Automatic annotation (TrEMBL):
GO CC term, one of those recorded: plasma membrane
Family according to the record: Belongs to the 4-toluene sulfonate uptake permease (TSUP) (TC 2.A.102) family.
Record's bilayer topology term: Multi-pass membrane protein
Name of this chain's protein: Probable membrane transporter protein
UniProt keyword Ribonucleoprotein, yes or no: no
Domain of life: Bacteria
Location(s), subcellular: Cell membrane; Membrane
Keyword Transcription: no
Main location (coarse class): membrane
InterPro entries: TM_pro_TauE-like, TSUP/Inactive_protease-like
Keyword terms: Cell membrane, Membrane, Transmembrane, Transmembrane helix
Regions crossing the membrane: 7-38, 44-65, 77-97, 103-119, 146-173, 207-232, 244-265
Length: 269
């Protein structure tokens, strides 16, 4: 671990934090390629374990102001986290067994899907907030949807070492009757729980690089503050900024896709 890598880890964390602060989500998807191709950590499993810890700390840190503002609905937050952690535990175990080349290939595909979803992102409509007019059958169906969504997102989070917030927010809105603001705040509890579960699993296998995690988190905190300040000034241009970021994610995804293909099929020129 060189001083240059520490500096690059801090800068990379700053970039991820800046994107999160500016756009409110999605930035953590860049953590894996940044640590791989910028910082130069070549063990994919170490990168996943390390980014998972950084994602967890960042999520819990950002959960506090949302909780103080009353934007966290604790009942769905806890239920989603409980069932999601089950999926995360399985996902992290499976992820450690999958060869690095295959994980990179699948991760590139995930990034392409996310870039597409971000480019087409529209403000979802909040469901009916009046719980008193909802039949018990509807509430039961919503709870089943919450369980399925939590386990599925948890599996992806554990496998790839991502927060999964871009999937958790819409899942909470339509399974727990949350507004957009509530879903964003509530999702952070699950993002942190999923990241912590993945990080613990990888740490027990010696796959967390603490020399990378600490500067990455510090850089992320600084970048997050800067991104939040700029977002407050350029809120009206958020759609444009979101499209630019989705383009960046797409470019990085294509690069990872090509690199993973070369790794899987080295005979291809």
């Amino acid at each position: 671990m060189t001083e240059l890598q520490v500096a690059l880890a801090t800068i990379s964390g700053g970039a991820v934090g800046f994107a999160l602060g500016l756009l409110g989500g999605g930035g953590s998807i860049l953590a894996v390629p940044l640590l791989l191709y910028v910082v130069g950590i070549h063990d994919v499993h170490v990168v996943i374990g390390s980014t998972a810890m950084a994602v967890a700390v960042n999520a819990y840190f950002n959960l506090l102001p949302h909780a103080k503002a009353g934007h966290v609905r604790w009942k769905p937050a806890i239920w989603f986290a409980v069932f999601g952690v089950m999926g995360t535990t399985v996902g992290s175990v499976v992820g450690k067994l999958v060869p690095s080349k295959d994980i990179l290939f699948l991760f590139a595909i995930l990034m392409l899907v996310m870039a597409y979803k971000m480019a087409r992102k529209r403000p979802p409509q909040s469901p009916n907030k009046d719980a008193s007019v909802q039949p018990k059958r509807i509430k039961s169906v919503r709870f089943v949807r919450l369980i399925i969504s939590a386990v599925t997102v948890g599996l992806l989070s554990g496998f790839f070492g991502i927060g999964g917030g871009f999937l958790i927010v819409p899942a909470l809105m339509f399974s727990a009757d949350l507004t957009m603001v509530e879903a964003v705040g509530t999702s952070l509890f699950s993002v942190g729980s999923f990241g912590l579960t993945t990080a613990v699993s990888y740490s027990l296998s010696g796959l967390v690089h603490w020399g990378i995690v600490v500067p990455f988190i510090l850089g992320g905190a600084i970048g997050g503050i800067a991104g939040t300040m700029i977002a407050a000034r350029f809120g009206k241009q958020k759609r444009t900024l979101n499209n630019i970021f989705s383009g960046v994610v797409a470019v990085v995804a294509v690069y990872m896709f090509v690199m993973s293909l070369h790794a899987l099929y080295p005979h291809i020129a």
